[in-house]
Sequence to fold (371 residues):
Amino acid sequence: MSDKLKTLVVGGGLAGLIAAYLLAKNGKEVVLIEKRKYPFHRVCGEYLSNEVLDFMNGENLLPGHYEFPRINTFLFSDTSGKSATIPLDLGGFGVSRYVLDEYFYQKVLEKGGEVKTGVQVQSVVYEEEENQFRLELADGGFLTGDYVIGAFGKRSKLDKVLKREFIEKRSPYIGVKYHIKTEADRKTVALHNFEGGYCGLNAIEEDKANLCYMGNREHLRMYGSINEMEKEVLWKNPRLRQLFTESEFLFQKPEVINEINFERKKPVEKHILMVGDSAGLITPLCGNGMAMAMQSGKLAAESIIAGGSRREIEFRYESSWKALFERRLWLGRKVQRFFGAKQASVFTRKLILHVPFVAKQIIKNTHGKPF
Fold:
């Protein structure tokens, strides 16, 4: 196959940006399409496991003009606010998506990749006779390409267009994110439980912290607004009440996403290589979706760069994806049951406190290895 074959990357989050960067770096023709314009905020935990450090340093993908907090401790609080801590053997660091996505975007351009921002992809069709893809854009334009990498996130209009199985199932989960200034320990990533959900907190650049929680849509309907829901539900955990009442909130309004879906998703559908959240890598408690998204983008790009027939490329990607993520995601779904409920959260806190070996094994097996 010719080196001039074009790849279209639909979505410019971490997975899509990494795929586009590696393709462009290796001389492949690549066009990335992102519906928003950089830089912008995304609902995300903004904790990045150190499993990505070697890769990022090797590719010069770590923004050098910021000092990122190094995180080596995990704090867990149950719904009553009682807590336990445990060291993180691998650890990580905090970095906002506002900074990181913008930096990756500039690296794609630097390597000669093309990026179209501010335009939505309406449909993706694989034309069998021509052996190519045709994308329809919201501005009336069309793009054709030999490969498509699907990086369009957790839940997209494209999922409906493609008739993916999971899209028919409604999800009760919402995600809410703030940047704050707080007195919390900057070396600790915290997970605070409340009825129906949990809230993560960790330091990011510029003395800020990221506060991001997953809650229940029914609570939002019940109390009528994000603010009232937080007071009536999250604040029942005293640690969260303290965070919300004693911190400086830096956004005029929170970033919010609806219907976060944790259903299993296929890594290849209708000849599209799915990466990041489009491939279901959002399952919580798997050592963070940011690192998994980046690695999936890397795998997709490497599969295309290695060449061969379409069938060989798809098989290569799917096999490596399953080897790296399938067991990790399965375990993450099991562990998720211990969060967001009173008895389960108390049990988990006691497990961390009294049987740290088991807790460490769970953390180890839901995290990836350096790549």
The longest strand covers residues 83-94. Residues 70-95+172-259+344-366 form a domain with the D-Amino Acid Oxidase; Chain A, domain 2 fold (CATH 3.30.9). Residues 303 and 313 are 5 Å apart (CA to CA).
